[in-house]
Amino acid sequence: MITVEQRWGAFHRWGPYVLLGFGVLMSVATSGVVGMGRTEWYVAGALVGAGAALQAGWGVLGRSRPEPSTAGSLYYALRWAIAFGLTWLNPFFAFYAVAGYFGAERLLPPRLVKPGLFATAVTMAGSQSGGLPPGNGLGWGVFGGLLAVNVALLSVFAHLAAQEDERARVQAVTITELERTNTALQQAMDENAALHAQLLVQAREAGVADERRRLAAEIHDTIAQGLTGIIAQLQVVAGAQDAGNRALAREHLGRAADLARHSLGEARRSVHNLSPAPLADDRLPEALKKTVAEWADRTGVRAEFTVTGTAEDLHDEIEATLLRIVQEALSNAARHAGASRLGVTLSFMGDEVSLDVRDDGRGFDPLATAVRTGTGGFGLDGMRARAERVAGALTVESEPGGGTAVSARVPLVRHEH
């Protein structure tokens, strides 16, 4: 597709030839009217030849010259002089002079553009007034008026051209800015795509790690605690057998079997990410009450469960979290506290649920958590991680010989019916 610049280039190269030829044809047709004699035609022929030669030479020389240049200014001046001389001989040669309107900005430096256009307007006004020089005062008046009109038209067209150039410049700047913006946007999109892929990988890795932590915590809360209870029951069985108390041995063997079955069921539920067994048929208050009662029956420690505030059905995840925290706290108390009394309080307080487990056992130094967490690392840290997973918090207060208080606070998120 031919661009506008290519069309203008063709005009600047071939247009003067066409305009000069058309001027020759019109002058030949009107030579009798304007009174051109043999001498005038000799001069006109010489000027036409000079104009054609000038255009041919510039067609070769102008390709290697920057624009505007001294050579371009000289070419413009010589072309104007030839056009002026031809128009003096015959006004219809002014068709050739028209080329001066289209080459000034391209050939002349900025300070000579207006003088060059004015010189062309003089030639055109002379042609339009009937030829140069004007024959009388009226002719000079007509020439002056036409020159003024030509200059005014030049000013108007120059102003419009300047506006068009400014609009073109602004459009070019806008296009450049849009291209830069599009490039930056594409780079940002590429970076976002890479970041998205990285986030997917990280999310997948985080999901795997979170699932591993969940299973580890569930195993600790179910299988590990169940095995601990089974070992404790079997130790009682061994002591009862040594003492010859078969009835006591059978009782604790039954408890060990019950614990094993319960632990197996909890393990299966953990693998399938189901709610803990105590919450399968009961809501949290009832499940905690039964859990505390079973623990008291199994350990022989006096334990009480209390509910304060208006009980509400909580979200399954909240209930499972609080139940597991109570189970872990009871397990720790059974293994380490040596308590004679223990209390569990579930409090519903507006937009928050509080769970407190207190015992009167031997206590411990909270900074030395290894005493209470064991080698697996899922004791207090595990309870705290569970609370934080549901946007809650867990605190522990204890001192050697002063008992232990575990308090968990979580948001009150109601059950979705």
Topology of this protein?
Blueprint lengths: L3 H31 L3 H24 L8 H20 L4 H4 L2 H8 L2 H19 L8 H106 L3 H26 L6 H4 L2 H16 L2 E7 L7 H22 L3 E9 L2 E8 L10 H4 L6 H10 L3 E6 L5 E8 L6
Parallel strand pairs: 1-2
Antiparallel strand pairs: 2-3, 3-5, 4-5
Helix pairs in contact: 1-2, 2-3, 3-5, 3-6, 5-6, 6-7, 7-8, 10-11, 11-13
Summarize the structure.
The protein is an alpha+beta fold. 71% of the residues lie in helices and 9% in strands.
Structure description:
With 417 residues, the protein is α+β, with helices and mostly antiparallel strands. Among the domains are: 4-133, no CATH class; 279-417, Heat Shock Protein 90 (2-Layer Sandwich). Helices cover 71% and strands 9% of the residues. It contains 13 helices and five strands. It has helices at 4-34, 38-61, 70-89, 94-97, 100-107, 110-128, 137-242, 246-271, 278-281, 284-299, 316-337, 370-373, 380-389; strands at 302-308, 341-349, 352-359, 393-398, 404-411. A five-stranded mixed β-sheet has the order 1-2-3-5-4, covered by helices on one side. A hairpin with a 5-residue loop joins strand 4 and strand 5. Helix 7 packs antiparallel against helix 8 (246-271). The longest helix is centred in the middle third of the chain and has 106 residues, at 137-242. It is rod-shaped, with a radius of gyration of 52 Å.
